[in-house]
């Protein structure tokens, strides 16, 4: 059962981790050695976009995140090389975007794109996304994207998958009623896992109405190199959308 208070189903308790350290992170933080230009971007450009958490016990002040007013806040967890996040932020300039990515090489790729085309409606969080989820205000986010996360295909590693009861609680807390959690993967076992975990959570409802809905890319979908490789290798992606129930 998901964590709930006595106010009713679908209202997860706010996590109480005022001084916790980063949870176990099961994934790469570094890949190939950065080129000098990439290292310089991390040193010089990242501070302009980096979102730093406030002191312990305080929430992220979402009304002061961006230079210009925005109508909504969206979050992408694990943006990889940043193709999808950058395309969305460049297209929807009236929305504010946060991208969480601890992998240094992925952050460097995103910064290279921002070096060519700066975006005032984008902030970057270079750490474990659970830390950010625990510090965002309740009902402050309109959409959370988790696109092609590490599938941890071996059964003994399934506990490392990001989609879990605890993280669904976290996402339910920060999503507005009617907000969306979008998940994409080409790994059938992780798709099934996500459907089962999310169906069991009282705060979410799967929005698919037809059999082909979950194989239809999201609106304005920006494909990634990883997705193209999966399709070439015969793995059919699934695109799942879940609504945060009121």
From TrEMBL:
Residues 11-22 have a biased composition (Basic and acidic residues). It is an enzyme of class 2 (transferase). It catalyses: guanosine(46) in tRNA + S-adenosyl-L-methionine = N(7)-methylguanosine(46) in tRNA + S-adenosyl-L-homocysteine. The gene is trmB. Belongs to the class I-like SAM-binding methyltransferase superfamily. TrmB family. This is tRNA (guanine-N(7)-)-methyltransferase. SUPFAM superfamilies: S-adenosyl-L-methionine-dependent methyltransferases (SSF53335). It comes from Consotaella salsifontis. Transmembrane segments: none annotated. Substrate binds at residues 154, 186, 224-227. Signal peptide: none annotated. S-adenosyl-L-methionine binds at residues 76, 101, 128, 150. Its EC number is 2.1.1.33. Keywords: Methyltransferase, S-adenosyl-L-methionine, Transferase, tRNA processing. The keyword Transmembrane helix does not apply. Catalyzes the formation of N(7)-methylguanine at position 46 (m7G46) in tRNA. GO terms for cellular component: tRNA methyltransferase complex. One of its GO terms (molecular function) is tRNA (guanine(46)-N7)-methyltransferase activity. Pathway: tRNA modification; N(7)-methylguanine-tRNA biosynthesis. Residues 1-22 are annotated as: Disordered.
């Amino acid at each position: 059962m998901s964590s709930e208070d006595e106010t009713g189903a679908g209202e997860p308790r706010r996590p109480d981790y005022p001084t916790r350290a980063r949870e176990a992170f099961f994934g790469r933080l570094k890949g190939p050695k950065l080129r000098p230009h990439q290292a310089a971007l991390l040193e010089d450009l990242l501070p302009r976009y980096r979102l730093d958490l406030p002191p312990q016990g305080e929430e992220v002040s979402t009304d002061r995140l961006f230079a210009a007013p925005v109508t909504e806040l969206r979050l992408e967890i694990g943006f990889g090389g940043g193709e999808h996040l950058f395309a969305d932020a460049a297209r929807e300039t009236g929305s504010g975007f946060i991208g969480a990515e601890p992998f240094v090489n992925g952050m460097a790729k995103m910064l290279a794109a921002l070096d060519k085309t700066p975006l005032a409606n984008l902030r970057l969080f270079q750490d474990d996304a659970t830390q950010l989820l625990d510090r965002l205000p309740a009902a402050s986010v309109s959409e959370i994207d988790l696109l092609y996360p590490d599938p941890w295909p071996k059964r003994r590693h399934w506990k490392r998958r990001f989609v879990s009861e605890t993280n669904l609680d976290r996402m339910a807390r920060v999503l507005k009623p009617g907000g969306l959690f979008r998940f994409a993967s080409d790994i059938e076992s992780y798709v099934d896992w996500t459907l089962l975990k999310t169906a069991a959570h009282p705060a979410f409802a799967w929005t698919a109405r037809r059999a082909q809905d979950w194989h239809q890319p999201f609106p304005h979908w920006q494909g990634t190199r990883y997705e193209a490789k999966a399709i070439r290798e015969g793995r059919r992606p699934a695109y799942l959308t879940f609504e945060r129930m009121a």
